[in-house]
Amino acid sequence: MSASVSLPPAQRRSRGRPRKTADERDDGNRRQLLLRAAAGLFRQQGFAGTSTRDIAAAAGMQPGSPFYHFENKEALLAAVMTEGMERATRHQAAAMQAAADAALQAGRVLGARDCLQVLVRSHFDVLLGPESDFIPVMLYEWRSISAPQREAVNRLRSGYEAAWVPVLQALHAQGALQGDPSLARLMIFGALNWAVQWYDPTRRATLDDLTHAALQLFLKEPA
Amino acid sequence: MSASVSLPPAQRRSRGRPRKTADERDDGNRRQLLLRAAAGLFRQQGFAGTSTRDIAAAAGMQPGSPFYHFENKEALLAAVMTEGMERATRHQAAAMQAAADAALQAGRVLGARDCLQVLVRSHFDVLLGPESDFIPVMLYEWRSISAPQREAVNRLRSGYEAAWVPVLQALHAQGALQGDPSLARLMIFGALNWAVQWYDPTRRATLDDLTHAALQLFLKEPA
DNA sequence: CCTACCGATCGGTAGG
DNA sequence: CCTACCGATCGGTAGG
């Protein structure tokens, strides 16, 4: 089972390529462990309020070890944010695909209202569901990363939001959404993202309840 | 003009009462200067990301001087928050009073829609207008104060939000607002508060534009 | 990835 | 309110 014997030359040569920078490396699952620990602590205490020693300890490492995986503290924050956005985008795409498939099976088409419901519900999932520290950190700590890193995160964010634009425009066209759709989008995201501040999963409201309430609030009655 | 000669005994005796604690004192306007400087820096850089030296420098003082006015850094943050909430509550009450007076002058009554418009516009004022650092700091740094201080701020916040409750209930009763009014209130505050993250006063949208867009988004057509 | 460490910065205080 | 200062903590690194 020795790879060094059975690998073809092309792959063998790739072992000699320049080493990845510290924040791209992935030795086992230690990097993921650090990311999860950082996400949780950054969410609880904020970026400036969390020391790299806190993060190391939460990941079961020694104080200097995070810097083996990440160039500096800021790169760790940026990695939490990009990881969060990538998860959110994948989750959203999967949810839309699943809804479209289910509609097809049932011989229906997916209306704009259905699309918005799927988008809102999927958004609540990544915002308030299990493993949901990454997106809140991105939402509330973006001022702590440098401009170039912020731009990279913003590109991911634009991709995520792009799925909403045609849905809101369609709803506007059919009279279910009043006013400029792009102002409406900003306010809708605000209403949803704010739930991070008050939602208590131990209370009676479920994510489906929140989704229903949001659609009731934003959309006009069908004509 | 010597007060020590003309003051009656009762007031003279009051000079001997226990000294106010440091964070209640008000020597000239230095305390206000510190509060403003702290609000601006806390908003820009966050609580943990701002040093008391930064604040002192912004107020034109030496590094140790803030501690003459405030017991510690946390008390300074709490003072920014309570100051912000008191201003916001006063501003809101004045706006409602002015609208009611104007309606009376014109021989009309103030409907629930009018009330909501006044509340939303007043909220945008304290959130996005001039001197608007205090409320964003309260919204986004509340996790940085201790539980007892947080409770004091929350009492002020409840008072502020209390004005919204009957208005939203009335709108719900007349069919202009769908769904549970208290969930709607949380989402509406989210939509408005989120504007802190994206509103650019140099762009074309005015606070009146935002107010109009918000009412369009939340309210159903009049029956 | 750990050990041992450095320089810088921070909140806060004594004493005037 | 300033001067001078302390102990603690922090981000980060060398060397293995």
Textual characterization of the structure:
The structure is a homodimer of 223-residue chains. Chain A has helices at 3-6, 9-13, 30-45, 52-58, 66-69, 73-105, 112-128, 134-141, 147-162, 164-173, 181-193, 195-198, 207-218. The first copy, chain A, is mainly α. Chain A has a domain at 78-218: Tetracycline Repressor, domain 2. The longest helix of chain A has 33 residues, at 73-105. Chain A starts with a helix and ends in a 5-residue tail after the last helix. The A-B interface holds A 44-49, 140, 143-144, 177-180, 183-184, 186-195, 197-198, 205, 209-210, 212-214, 216-218, 220-221 and B 44-49, 140, 143-144, 177-180, 183-184, 186-195, 197-198, 205, 209-210, 212-214, 216-218, 220-221.
Structural class by helix and strand composition of chain A: mainly alpha
Which segments of chain A are poorly predicted (pLDDT under 50) over 5 or more consecutive residues?
1-26
This entry's quaternary arrangement is homodimer
CATH topology of the domain at 78-218 in chain A, by name, is Tetracycline Repressor, domain 2
**Shape label of chain A:** elongated
The chain pair with the largest interface is:
A-B, 38 and 38 residues
Amount of helix of chain A: 55-70%
- Count of discrete alpha- or pi-helical segments spanning 4 or more residues of chain A: 13
CATH H-level name of the domain at 78-218 in chain A... which superfamily? Tetracycline Repressor, domain 2
Radius of gyration of chain A: 21 Å
Largest sheet of chain A: none
What would CATH call the class of the domain at 78-218 in chain A?
Mainly Alpha
Task: Tell me the β content of chain A.
Answer: under 5%
Strand element count of chain A: 0
CATH architecture group name of the domain at 78-218 in chain A: Orthogonal Bundle
Distance between the termini of chain A: 67 Å
* Average pLDDT number of chain A: 89
Topology order of chain A in helix (H) and strand (E) letters: HHHHHHHHHHHHH
